[in-house]
């Protein structure tokens, strides 16, 4: 399409297919999921929209140049060959984020330095002045990927990671990343139209992301800024038009189902409530301060997602007892629900004492974790497809064979220079 260019959306491992589906829904073309990223094509309108609307993207990049690079000199020459005055002023500020994998270049900071020298030299030769480095809030943020000596240079359209939605101004000790929380919600197949609960809600990430989905509120509308707002080709009128279109899709009717958040810690409840207020969804969430074991039964069907403590600060016998309590409570009070526990403590997960109906390996930062599904007392097996809207089911997702422990393991994706 005329006006299209190559784009990349970065994400977390395991969320690639979900993000690809989100991008297709937004109108992206040539969508191709890779490892922790999705390649696609689109225009400026789509670039703005993807930043505002993608729940499972960490950042959106616009490809500037891709080249073979087997030496420092080639890197320098190729970067210097770009007309940087189109993107930056001589007295502007710049940051380069390098990502080096499987390459003869091993020092990512050195690679970034070389690229920065090429840009600075071009400005100095043309104007006698040069841009300076500003790591936190530069006028232009670049991403430089080196993979098997293929270099790809991108303009970073997002700036701060898109998991920083802007609503979580206060947090408790171990909040889950908002992008991971949104991806987990999609994986559960929750239809955003039936009961949802988190009985250990902490700062409220799952319930707030759930309410945003139910209200069709785009996750980017709370952000103060995106990096593309400083680009020389920034089209303010177009961005405002896209913003208004996205806002017009919001569902403002009362929600005819319950989103329930509880935690035994009163401070967590007050933090979650504040964050929900920031996101404009406080009125959609029923907050309750009480231990999970004392939950009054909630009518099903519904989806419960919980991220219990992993046990880093708690001794082992107590953590195992806690997971056993979770299993007992689910069995006693959540009949008809599908429950999902997300934890890095695989040993403790075995103490839940319920038959897992599916399991997905995911990373929570550097911690290898599992998302485990339990269908409690007659939960309908056809409730909610484990399939992102408009897209394929996450790779490996399947109904478990009765004999085997199921796995929803996402396909291992190859690394490739995008
Ligand atoms: C890992 S944090 C959850 C983080 C949350 N997903 C977020 O995004 O902020 C675990 C939470 O479980 C709560 N918790 C621990 N034991 C509990 C229990 N028995 N009943 C209810 N809440 C409990 C803690 O107070 C803590 O807020």
Beta-strand content: 15-25%
CATH superfamily membership of the largest domain = Vaccinia Virus protein VP39
Q: Major sheet: order of its strands?
A: 2-3-1-4-8-7-5-6
Give helix and strand order, one letter per element, not per position. Answer: EHEEHEHEHEEEHEHHEHEEHEHEE
| Poorly predicted ranges | 382-412
CATH architecture of the largest domain, please?
Answer: 3-Layer(aba) Sandwich
Number of domains: 2
Q: What's the CATH topology label of the largest domain?
A: Rossmann fold
Description:
With about 425 residues, the protein is α/β, with parallel strands linked by helices. It folds into 2 domains: about 5-155, VC0802-like, CATH 3.30.2130; about 180-215 and about 250-375, Vaccinia Virus protein VP39 (Rossmann fold, 3-Layer(aba) Sandwich), CATH 3.40.50.150. Helix content is about 30%, strand content about 25%. The strands form 2 sheets. The chain has an 8-stranded mixed beta sheet. A 7-stranded mixed beta sheet has the order 11-10-9-12-13-15-14, covered by helices on one side. The radius of gyration is 23 Å and the shape is elongated. Mean pLDDT is about 90; it is low at about 380-410. S-adenosylmethionine (SAM) binds near residues 172, 174, 203, 205 and 307.
Topology:
Elements: E1 5-10, H1 16-26, E2 29-34, E3 37-42, H2 44-53, E4 59-68, H3 72-80, E5 93-101, H4 108-127, E6 132-133, E7 140-147, E8 150-156, H5 178-188, E9 195-198, H6 205-214, H7 236-248, E10 259-263, H8 266-278, E11 285-289, E12 302-306, H9 316-333, E13 337-343, H10 346-349, E14 358-364, E15 367-375
Parallel strand pairs: 5-6, 5-7, 9-10, 9-12, 10-11, 12-13
Antiparallel strand pairs: 1-3, 1-4, 2-3, 4-8, 7-8, 13-15, 14-15
The structure holds S-adenosylmethionine.
């Amino acid at each position: 399409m005329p006006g299209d260019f190559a784009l990349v959306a970065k994400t977390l491992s395991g969320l690639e297919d979900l993000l690809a589906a989100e991008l297709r829904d937004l109108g992206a073309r040539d969508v191709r999921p890779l490892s922790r990223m999705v390649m696609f094509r689109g225009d400026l309108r789509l670039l703005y929209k993807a930043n505002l609307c993608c729940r499972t993207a960490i950042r959106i990049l616009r490809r500037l140049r891709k080249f073979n690079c087997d030496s420092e000199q080639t890197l320098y020459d190729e970067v210097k060959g770009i007309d940087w005055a189109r993107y930056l002023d001589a007295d502007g500020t710049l940051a380069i984020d390098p990502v080096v994998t499987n390459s003869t270049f091993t020092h990512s900071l050195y690679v970034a330095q070389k690229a920065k020298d090429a840009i600075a030299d071009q400005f100095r030769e043309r104007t006698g002045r040069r841009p300076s480095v500003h790591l936190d809030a530069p006028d232009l943020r670049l991403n430089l990927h080196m993979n098997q000596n293929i270099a790809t240079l991108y303009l970073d359209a997002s700036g701060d990671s898109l998991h920083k939605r802007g609503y979580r101004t206060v947090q408790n000790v171990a909040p889950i990343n908002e992008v991971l929380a949104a991806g987990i919600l999609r994986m559960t197949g929750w239809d955003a139209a039936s009961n949802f609960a988190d009985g250990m809600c902490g700062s409220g990430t799952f319930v707030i992301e759930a309410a945003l989905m139910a209200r069709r509120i785009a996750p980017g509308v709370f952000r103060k800024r995106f990096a593309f707002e400083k680009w020389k080709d920034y089209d303010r009128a177009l961005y405002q038009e896209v913003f208004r279109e996205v806002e017009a899709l919001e569902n403002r009717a009362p929600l005819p189902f319950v989103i329930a958040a509880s935690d035994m810690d009163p401070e967590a409840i007050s933090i979650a409530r504040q964050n929900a207020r920031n996101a404009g969804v406080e009125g959609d969430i029923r907050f309750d301060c009480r231990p999970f074991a004392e939950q009054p039964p909630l009518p099903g069907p519904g989806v419960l997602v919980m991220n219990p403590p992993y046990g880093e600060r708690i001794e082992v016998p107590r953590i195992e007892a806690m997971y056993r309590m979770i299993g007992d409570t689910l069995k006693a009070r959540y009949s008809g629900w599908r429950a999902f526990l997300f934890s890095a403590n695989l040993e403790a997960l075995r103490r839940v004492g319920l038959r897992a109906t599916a399991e997905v390996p995911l990373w929570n930062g550097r911690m290898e974790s599992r998302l485990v599904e339990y269908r409690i007392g007659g939960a309908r097996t056809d409730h909610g497809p484990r399939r992102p809207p408009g897209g394929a089911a996450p790779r490996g997702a399947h109904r478990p064979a009765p004999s085997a422990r199921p796995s929803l393991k996402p396909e291992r994706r190859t690394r490739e220079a995008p």
